[in-house]
Amino acid sequence: MHGPFARSPLADELRLVDLNVRSVVHLAHLVLPDLLARGRGRLLVTSSVAAAMPAPLLGTYAASKAFLRSFAWSLRGEVAGSGVTVTTLLPGPTSTDFFREAEMRRTHIGRSPKSRPAHVAHLAVDALERGQAEVATGVVAKTMLVLARVLPQPARAAFHGWFYAPGKG
Fold first, then answer.
1. 55 φ/ψ angles, rounded to the nearest 5 degrees
2. Strand residue runs (E) in 36-155
3. In angstroms, what CA-CA distances link 48 with 55, 65, 67, 167?
4. Where are the domains of the chain?
5. Other residues' Cβ atoms within 10 Å of the Cβ of residue 120
6. How high is the pLDDT of residue 113?
């Protein structure tokens, strides 16, 4: 879902929320009790660097990813000391069909450098095995996380909106 929220079909927005939020909550609820009963295990929640800032033109997506980031950190706190860890993956732009499917190839982020999916998966599994709380992948993701820490909220929204807007050329 890319574009102005007020012009997007509500059914599409709700499908995105179901996929990104509801399905993860459902799966975590199915898996976590067994991990806790065993006293060991790892849970990986795939969020996105989009979780770090408001995202005009991609608002529902970014908000759903912010939910996942907060949810993972919350679960991590709940299971602390149990032998179970929760790791949040914050991938930046990755060479997948995402930008084509969302009709975002001509946006600034769509034209930015992208990580290879295998590299992102490798970093995610390494972080998961170490029980690391969070891992960001790619230069763009790491840069955006730094900007999210230092920019005031209106500037974050403006920057992120620019990033998701069509670029020239």
1. -135, 85
2. 41-46, 84-91, 134-137
3. 12, 6, 10, 22
4. 5-163
5. 22
6. 81
Among 61, 71, 99, 163, which one carries the catalytic annotation?
A: 61
CATH code given to domain 5-163: 3.40.50.720
Res. 95: pLDDT tops 70? yes
Give CA–CA dist 4/6, Å, rounded: 6
* Mean pLDDT, rounded, for 76-82: 98
Residue type at position 9: P
Question: Cα separation of 105 and 92, whole Å?
Answer: 15
Q: What is the mean pLDDT of residues 30-38?
A: 98
- Average pLDDT taken over every residue of the chain: 91
Is position 164 annotated as part of the catalytic site?
no
pLDDT of residue 60 exceeding 60: yes
For residue 44, what are its two tokens? 């990986």
Give yes or no for a contact between 137 and 114, defined as CB atoms under 8 angstroms apart.
no
Provide the pLDDT for residue 169.
52
